[in-house]
Specification:
alpha+beta; Uridine Diphospho-n-acetylenolpyruvylglucosamine Reductase, domain 2; Uridine Diphospho-n-acetylenolpyruvylglucosamine Reductase, domain 3; Vanillyl-alcohol Oxidase, Chain A, domain 3; 4 domains; 21 strands; 30% helix; flavoprotein; FAD; BBE
């Protein structure tokens, strides 16, 4: 025991000396923060204490696999920048003005997450938890106050059990890895979730992520049957231990408000040996407005659950076709859980105006259809193991997105107005996901995500750009905000619903006021009602019970009912005895 203590002490002293030297040699000066008790904090001292806390507690909480020490990276670590940038999908958060984490903790076992939570809480550091980095507002890896980033990329194990039709998936796995692992075991099993292969399941499964099988099987959150989560006390809870209220909340309500998800247990769904996909382009002059108007009711109300017709609206830069003029263009992405012959019959009966042709239909396995959809229009044929790549590729860009739900068809006249507004922007994009089917059958309160029967479709407003600088960013932000404002009369009301998977700080945020996190509302915030509707009150009750001091917080987490959380960034004195660092 004495030998182990000596070794531990030597290790901590070495880490501490390296960290002090790194801080003193950095071009950045140490800052101080004034809390509500006006306590001045020495950042270097607190950082050293945090590192020591990680080291000693990692030995205590080890999973006994021999890998006890937690991988932790500081801004002066060689690989810090590459790790931080590896999963930033929205490139506006790569700017030098974005506050970077004081530490990146990269757990290789569950106990490392427990220790990171315990030590962050003890030393007054907020945490952010990143799985795949697809949080569109960057809230999984940015903050306005000093924070620790828990990056889950090492926790990516997937255990598929075909006999029981389920799988355990660690939170750092990507959708591509999940789909590939399922297909390795079976060609007639799948999972209903998003299209991008690099999306991390930790966040996506907690915010009701949707994809081409949403009309048949609902959202990803609808197929979660168990979970393992680290709470604010550093305890690991499964479904039985956390109880049904908390389990309800983390399915669709965003797990980041309640803890750190370690793994999800998912229900596998049946898929046929052959599915049919199609990508159908139509130009504006081919009756685009009439097609969109008809699509609004056909895709969500008139076709069977097995048929998914997603609509994408963009602007063509093929000016030669239109004598130098840019124009609206459509793309219909189709997946049918069945053969092409049956799809052709359905489309001829329900949507003959689209004029789908046999040579536009492609029969393939479900896993091949996943690759097809994940390519986002890229015509290059790729093998299924491409799904295992974590390279951001086309997933990384500068962009802004907002969301709406449409409950009544938008008139042709208003659609034409939308097209005109799109032509004002360089690279605008609308995606319309058809609802209906299974999504209409699940009650609003079944899980925390409430967006169900009343919706025809969800719409996402996107703008992309390449220019650098705040002025360019604000110009593109303003365009999408103006379009969103224009759409007000034509979308859902009381509240105007929004999709939590596309977080949007424009609709509201928790604010830091005099060192306190506050929602400034006496009940559910306006943005909470937009995301969760009547489920918002229950989410607040769950938060108040399981995280009453709001340890898990960001600009759009649910807050406990008192609405106030002190950000306690304070000095922690070094103990005389090393055992004082051990949590018992």
């Amino acid at each position: 025991m004495a030998g182990r203590r000596c070794s531990l002490f030597s290790y901590v002293v070495f880490v501490a000396l390296v960290w002090v030297h790194a801080l003193s040699s950095s071009c950045c000066t140490s800052s101080t923060i004034l809390t509500t008790t006006t306590t001045l904090v020495d950042d270097v001292d607190n950082d050293l204490n945090f590192l020591q806390c990680l080291t000693f507690n990692s030995m205590h909480y080890s999973d006994h696999d021999g890998n006890k020490l937690i991988p932790v990276f500081t801004p002066n670590t060689t690989s810090y920048s590459s790790i931080l940038s590896s999963s930033i999908r929205n490139l506006i958060f790569t700017s030098s003005s974005t506050l970077k984490p004081r530490f990146i903790v990269a757990p290789t076992q569950d106990s490392h997450v427990q220790v990171a939570v315990i030590c962050s809480k003890k030393h007054g550091l907020q945490i952010r938890v990143r799985s795949g980095g697809h949080d569109v507002e960057g809230l999984s890896y940015t903050s306005s106050v000093p924070f620790v980033l828990i990056d889950l990329f090492n926790l990516r194990a997937i255990d598929v059990n075909i006999e029981d039709n389920n799988a355990w998936v660690q939170a750092g796995a990507t959708l591509g890895e999940v789909y590939y692992s399922i297909a390795e075991k079976s060609h007639v099993h799948g999972f209903p979730s998003g299209q991008s292969r690099t999306i991390g399941v930790g966040g996506h499964f907690s915010v009701a992520g949707v994809g081409p099988m949403l009309r048949k099987y609902g959202s990803a959150s609808d197929q979660i049957i168990d979970a393992r989560l680290v709470n604010a006390n550093g305890e690991v809870l499964n479904r039985e231990a956390m109880g049904e209220d908390l389990f309800w909340a983390i399915r669709g309500g965003g797990a980041s408000s309640f803890g750190v998800v370690l793994a999800w247990k998912i229900n596998l769904v049946a898929v046929p040996p052959i599915v049919t996909v199609a990508s159908i382009d139509r130009a504006y002059e081919q009756g685009a407005t009439e097609l969109v108007h008809k699509w609004q009711t056909v895709a969500s109300r008139q076709v069977p659950q097995e048929l998914y017709i997603e609509l994408n609206v963009g602007v063509s830069n093929n000016t030669s076709r239109l004598a130098g003029r840019r124009a609206i263009e459509l793309n219909f992405k189709v997946m049918f859980l069945g053969p092409s012959k049956k799809l052709m019959q359905l489309m001829e009966e329900k949507f003959p105006e689209l004029g789908i042709k046999a040579n536009e239909c492609n029969e393939m396995s479900w896993i091949e259809s996943v690759v097809y959809f994940a390519q986002f229009g890229d015509k290059i044929e790729r093998p299924t193991d491409w799904l295992l790549s974590r390279d951001a590729g086309d997933d990384a860009a500068k962009f802004k997105v907002k969301s709406d739900f449409v409950t009544e068809p938008i008139s042709k006249t208003r659609l034409e107005e939308i097209w005109r507004k799109m032509l004002e922007e360089n690279e605008p994009h609308l995606t319309m996901w058809p609802w209906g089917g299974r999504m209409s059958e699940i009650p609003e309160g079944e899980i925390a995500c409430p967006h169900r029967a009343e919706n025809l479709y969800m719409i996402g407003y996107f703008t992309f750009w390449d220019e650098d600088g705040d002025e360019a960013q604000e110009r593109h932000f303003n365009w999408v905000r103006e379009l969103y404002e224009y759409m007000t009369p034509y979308v859902s009301k009381s509240p105007r619903a929004a999709f939590f998977a596309y977080r949007d700080l424009d609709i509201g945020r928790n604010e830091i006021i005099n060192g306190f996190m506050s929602s400034a509302y006496s009940g559910c915030s306006s943005w909470g009602l937009q995301y969760f509707k009547s489920n918002c009150e229950k989410l607040m009750q769950v938060k108040s019970k399981f995280d009453p001091h709001n340890f898990f917080q960001d600009e759009q987490t649910i807050l406990a009912e008192q609405h106030i959380c002190p950000i306690e960034y304070h000095t922690v004195h070094r103990p005389r005895d090393l055992d004082a660092y051990m949590v018992v």
